[in-house]
C-alpha cells in the first residue's frame, strides 16, 4: 500500500509494506556490500527520521534493487552512527553486461542489519522530498523510518569466496571449503644422457583423494624430455601439469685457436673437469690441461675430451693449420697479385731443382685445391687458375720433401 502526504510544500511518499510484495524477501540472502559505479542518487536521512531507531552505532543500512532473478542486490550502504547522514544509491554501470546498480525508475528497498548480523530490519520509508524510485543525479530526503524485525537463520556452508564451493547464501562457516588444486613438482635430473631422472608431485587444495594420470611413465626412471600429467581430485577438479627433465650435468665445451700464438684453448661448464687431448686420433698423454701448444705438434686435428666430477663427458675438436711457419731453406717464393681474382702467380728462386707441392687451404683447414710442379734450379714463375674458387681468405702452403712454407692470400672478384 502506498500513501501520499503533503508536507511543507513537498510531496511525500511511503514505501509501503515490503512483506506485502508478492516477490517477498529472504533475510538470509541479503549482503550489505555496494560498488561505486560513478552514477548515483543522494538520499538525505534527516535528524527527525532517526528518532526511535532500533539501530546502534556500527550497524549498517542499505538500499537494494531486485535483479532479474528476483534477488535483492545492495546498491548503497552506510554505517549507522545515530546522526543525520547521507546514503548514496549507486546507479548501474552501463559499460558492463552485469546489472550492478539502480536503473532509472527502479524501486529502492531499504534494509538494515545489526553489527553482530543477528537481526535484519525491513525499513518502511516516508519521503520528505522525492520518492522511492531511483533517478540519477537527483536528491531525496527521508522524513520517517519505520523498522520491522526479521531474524536471520543460521545457514552453514563455505563462506570463503576464494573456494571452489563458496556458498554466497551461507552466513556461518562450517570448515567445508575446498580450494583450487595447487601442484608443485620436485625433479631429479638425469646424469649425462641416462634415464635415471625422476619427478615427485606434491598436491594441495581440492578434495582428497587425488588421482594422477601418468601416461604410463616410470616416474623413477625418466630420460631428458617434457612430461605431462593430469591431476584430479574427488571434487572433479583437474589440472594438467607439465614438467621438463633436463640433462643438468652434461658437459659443454667450446674451443678456440689462436694462430698467432698457436695455442688451442677450451672453455667448459663442467664441474671439477679433467682434460685429455688427442692429435690426429693419438692420445697426448702429457696434455691434460685446458689448453695445448699446437706448435709442439704441428698442423692437424686436435680433439679434447672433458670429464666432470660425475663422469659425464664433453667432446670437441678443431683443425689447426699454419703452424710452424718458416721459409724453405735457401729458397724464396713471391705470390702475386694480392688479392687475386683469376690467376695466382708464384715467382721463385731455387738453389736446386725440386718437386714442389702447392696447396690452397681455407679458414677451416680444408684443402680446396692442390698442384705439383717440377721446378728447375734458378729463377722462374708458375701460375694457378683460382677463378673457380669462392671469395675469401686462404693460406697457400708451398712444400718440398724437406720443408714447407705458408703464405696468406685473398681471392676476391
Description:
The chain has 413 residues and is mainly β. The chain folds into four domains: 4-151, Immunoglobulin-like (Sandwich), CATH 2.60.40; 182-245; 253-320, Immunoglobulins (Immunoglobulin-like), CATH 2.60.40.10; 332-411, Immunoglobulin-like. The chain has strands at 4-7, 10-13, 40-45, 60-66, 72-79, 85-90, 109-113, 119-129, 139-151, 156-157, 172-173, 182-188, 198-204, 211-213, 225-232, 238-245, 253-258, 263-268, 274-279, 282-284, 291-293, 300-307, 313-320, 332-336, 343-350, 354-361, 367-375, 378-385, 392-399, 404-411. The strands form nine sheets. It has a seven-stranded mixed sheet with strand order 5-4-7-8-9-3-6, with no helix packed on it. A four-stranded antiparallel sheet has the order 20-19-22-23, with no helix packed on it. A four-stranded antiparallel sheet has the order 27-26-29-30, with no helix packed on it. A hairpin with a 4-residue loop joins strand 17 and strand 18.
SSE layout and pairing:
Elements: E1 4-7, E2 10-13, E3 40-45, E4 60-66, E5 72-79, E6 85-90, E7 109-113, E8 119-129, E9 139-151, E10 156-157, E11 172-173, E12 182-188, E13 198-204, E14 211-213, E15 225-232, E16 238-245, E17 253-258, E18 263-268, E19 274-279, E20 282-284, E21 291-293, E22 300-307, E23 313-320, E24 332-336, E25 343-350, E26 354-361, E27 367-375, E28 378-385, E29 392-399, E30 404-411
Parallel strand pairs: 3-9, 10-11
Antiparallel strand pairs: 1-2, 3-6, 4-5, 4-7, 7-8, 8-9, 12-13, 14-15, 15-16, 17-18, 18-21, 19-20, 19-22, 22-23, 24-25, 25-28, 26-27, 26-29, 29-30
